[in-house]
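During data preparation, a discrete fold description was generated, as reproduced here:
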Amino acid sequence: MSELRLKILTEAKRIVVKIGSRILVDSEHGGVRTRYIQKLADSIARLMEAGKEVVVVTSGAVGTGMAELGYQEKPAVMAEKQACAAVGQIDLMYAYREMFRWVQLSCGQILLSAEDFRDRTRYKNLQNTLKTMLAKKIVPIINENDSLAVAEIKVGDNDKLSSDVALFLDADLLLIFTDEDGLYDDNPKKNPKARLLRFVPEITPSILSLAGKPGETGSAVSTGGMRSKLEAIRAVVNSGANAFLANGLKVLPHEVIFENALGTLFAGKKQKMNSRRRWLSFVSTPRGSVVVDAGGAKALQERHSSLLPVGVIRIKKHFDVGDLIEVLDESGKCIARGISQYDSENLKLVLGKKTALVRQILGTEIPEELIHKNNLVVF
């Protein structure tokens, strides 16, 4: 094990472990792989004995429910998929509870939606709950609330959920377990000479291209593919944390930390972001977006100044005061994110107008800035 790899892995104190559906669900016979969860619980117990804090982000509720309800393929109808999640979540959590009891550990279930990350108050409350659980040596088992989630409140797939959890908990390391050995320099299913990348210092566009196209999924029981995993890992490493991708059918968490297990280590940026910048940059899902002209884009990118209505030329999607919104340049590239001090209806009335005219139209109580620089992160 290289000195850098050893340092990154052994010094990680707070670890988020994401387990994919293809690891947890027996797609051939149906149901939860209880034996796997037993091994996972034992592995996590070893990490906790070594002073680590561990959070599990689990998939598998829909896949487990599919077996219970007799589905061979994931239902296309949302209500049927949610019914599978509701049924499967019970079996899944029962397996976790019993297997963690076997190693004298308690675990607790937390089901999340995108609203828990969008709202800053709920976000902080969630942080406090999880940190209390960790302090009491309780293993949080986190899943998206698939039985209720609709497009507007859905986090996405559980790869994104795991990165969101790692970011808001200020984790040192995100471990993503799938049914691949890690990231290869080519498709190993098509090229037998493809080489496993053991260390990735930066996720460049060329590295991202190795994962295939956005939206490619893996199997009948899973949502994300390799692309979604790299997108999740990119958010984590850009915030300053590290990530590791490995085959959960071959490798357990404690083996990654202590035994030079096979997989790909992704190094985080040297400087960690503070909590608010992480929330603005990666965790919360924007409600809407605005398009700025070249002058507005330059003011943001070069001077990091507040965004004023005068620089805005278009609005995309409705948003309210206090919502997180994206700022796009005229090519459609996201150049910033921030908290809006206007709702989209009022902003429509003052697009491209200077502050004095904005005050005449909307009154003197309205803020000068659409997004104040203290609530703005520029990419």
